[in-house]
Write a structure and sequence with these properties.
The complex is a heterodimer of chains A (about 260) and B (about 270). Chain A is about 35% helix and about 25% strand. By secondary structure, chain A is α/β, with parallel strands linked by helices. In chain A, a hairpin with a 2-residue loop joins β6 and β7. The longest helix of chain A has 16 residues, at about 190-205. Chain B has a two-stranded antiparallel sheet with strand order 1-2. In chain B, α2 (about 35-40) packs across α10, α3 (about 45-75) packs antiparallel against α9 (about 220-230) and α9 packs antiparallel against α10. Chain B is flat and about 70 Å long. Classes of the chains: A alpha/beta (about 260), B mainly alpha (about 270). The interface between A and B is medium-sized, with 34 and 25 residues.
């Protein structure tokens, strides 16, 4: 679906046998997944299947208990020196996270800052950009999501859809190599879902590498290169989006899709 | 339309008016109030000096207590059981003993430690302090700050807890370091909860400083006492002190209003 030439040899995200437990509850039971550069992958599945947890492992918001997760060839949360993996210090882990954008279900815009200041925060604080330069960048990103006219509005003055688009602009302002979306439209009123999906479609067209946890099956079918169906902490079925959603092979996938479509 | 008549309320209002008028009448006519003495001492040099000391104590105490309070709150929130334990023990000790006892204790610290010094082997003495040279002001500041910081810790912790978990997570996902996340995202939003409670603490502290009169620190109340112990004009001088306490509290209340309004930015529609 993308015609971007792949230069690097390693994929953007490479997950091998990812396991994660919260206390005695095993949430991820050995997930394998590869996301190539420029690829859009949608994770679908019932609640509690571990989709969001897996997504949060990609940028180290959760630490994995076993397996190997790497982003752009580097192990997540660790540094390889010789044959050993050394756990990163907080500041180093933070620097790695800065290269991965994340959009949350509940937007999580900084409520004490205007839309513009929200988008400027990362460039100024994390990327140490000059304020004037950061402001230009932030305005450009707000323009891109169609909210330049709301630059001075506080999050509480914006609709859910607008807040989520500002959150996308905020993630884009970090110029990430990978964007993670954690159910970006689940908290929105139905009539506001479209504007957010449209923004995400535009990003996909530009060749942004995206991993999207979603319940929007039409989005997954039309926009994703691949769809991964997860249930009970394992990958049940994955493949080209039209195949998985249009012609699922696994009985569990068929049952799930039958319920949501 | 004929409105219902609120006879009960009229009666209550009438009674209250009578009581208030009575109070004004008696305070104006009772010569023992000695209003002339009140006005004479209101701007007396000793009273003003005491007022300055009271204000200094209040401001310094709240600044020190806020700093210690933030540190304690961070310790209580942290995952480290030792940090948490020490902070909890601190709170337990300083909230569990009367401030009056703590003040007298610090004033008499020399009985426990005649000399306080910090030295490192090989480097020598870094700091030395004779317990006998502790001034009433230092003892007061120490006692008030340590006591108040235990309360400030709870207020700061409450404020931090009130900030949604997603805020810190979004900052973290963006690549902010823990202290950047706390300083730029969590604390500024926590202040919206912390400031009103702290405002009350400041007003309370202004009046609590009067306790230090027991260790002979000439703050506002002690200055008034010093005068009436000579002149025996007890009531007028207590009124003088009360006037100043009331005046400062009123100003603080106005300041609090504007500060809260400023911190409420971004939350207009939620009020």
């Amino acid at each position: 679906m993308t015609n971007q030439t792949v230069i690097a040899t390693h994929p953007m995200v490479e997950a091998r046998n990812i396991q994660k437990s919260f206390g005695t509850v095993e949430v991820l039971k050995g997930i394998d997944m590869v996301v190539d550069r420029g690829e859009v992958v949608c994770l679908i599945g019932p609640s509690g299947s571990g989709k969001s947890t897996f997504l949060r492992c990609i940028n180290h918001l959760e630490t994995i208990n076993a397996g190997m997760m790497s982003v752009d060839g580097e192990p997540v949360g660790y540094e390889k020196r010789g044959n050993l993996l050394y756990e990163l210090r907080e500041s180093q882990a933070a620097a790695r996270r800065a290269q991965i954008g994340m959009v949350f279900q509940h937007f999580n815009l900084f409520e004490h800052k205007t839309a513009l200041k929200n988008v400027m925060e990362g460039p100024v604080v994390v990327r140490r950009m000059r304020r004037s330069r950061a402001k230009e960048l932030a305005m450009a990103q707000l323009e891109k999501v169609g909210l330049a006219h709301k630059a001075d509005a506080y999050p509480s003055e914006l609709s859910g859809g607008q807040q989520q688009r500002v959150a996308i602009a905020r993630a884009l302002a970090m110029e990430p190599k990978l964007l993670l979306f954690d159910e970006p439209t689940s908290a929105l009123d139905p009539e506001l879902v479209g504007e957010v999906l449209e923004t995400m479609r535009a990003l996909a067209r530009e060749g942004m590498t995206m991993v999207v946890v979603t319940h929007e099956m039409s989005f997954a079918r039309d926009v994703a290169d691949r769809v991964v169906f997860m249930d009970g902490g394992v990958v049940v079925e994955s493949g080209p989006s039209r195949d998985v959603i249009g012609n699922p092979q696994n009985a569990r996938t068929r049952e799930f899709l039958g319920n949501v479509l | 339309m004929v409105r219902r008549r609120a006879y009960g309320r009229w009666f209550a209002d009438a009674v209250l008016v009578l009581i208030v008028l009575g109070l004004i009448w008696t305070s104006a006519t009772n010569p023992n109030f000695q209003w002339d003495v009140v006005f004479q001492y209101l701007t007396h040099q000793m009273i003003l000096g005491g007022l300055v000391t009271t204000l200094q104590l209040t401001v310094l105490t709240m600044v020190i207590a806020s700093v210690i309070g933030v540190v304690l709150a961070l310790m209580i929130i942290s995952d480290d059981p030792w940090l948490r334990g020490v902070a909890e023990a601190y709170k337990w000790l300083f909230r569990g003993t009367p401030l009056l006892v703590q003040l007298i204790f610090w004033f008499n610290i020399s009985a426990l430690y005649p000399k306080i010094s910090l030295s490192i082997a090989g480097v020598g003495e870094l700091f030395s302090f004779s317990g006998n040279s502790i001034t009433p002001f230092m003892a007061a500041l120490l006692g008030l700050s340590l006591h108040e910081s235990a309360y400030m810790a709870e207020i700061v912790r409450g404020g931090v807890m009130a900030v949604g978990h997603g805020q810190g997570e979004a900052a973290k996902a963006m690549g902010m370091k823990p202290m950047q996340t706390f300083g730029r995202i969590v604390l500024p939003q926590a202040l919206r909860v912390i400031v009103p409670a702290t405002g009350n603490q400041v007003i309370l502290m202004l009046k609590t400083t009067s306790l230090v009169s027991v260790i002979a620190l000439p703050e506002l109340l002690y200055s008034a006492q010093a005068i009436y112990s000579r002149t025996f004009e007890i009531i007028p001088l207590l009124i003088v002190a009360s006037c100043w306490y009331l005046a400062v509290c009123s100003i603080l209340g106005v300041g609090q209003y504007y500060l809260e309004r400023r911190l409420g930015r971004g939350h207009k529609s939620k009020r």
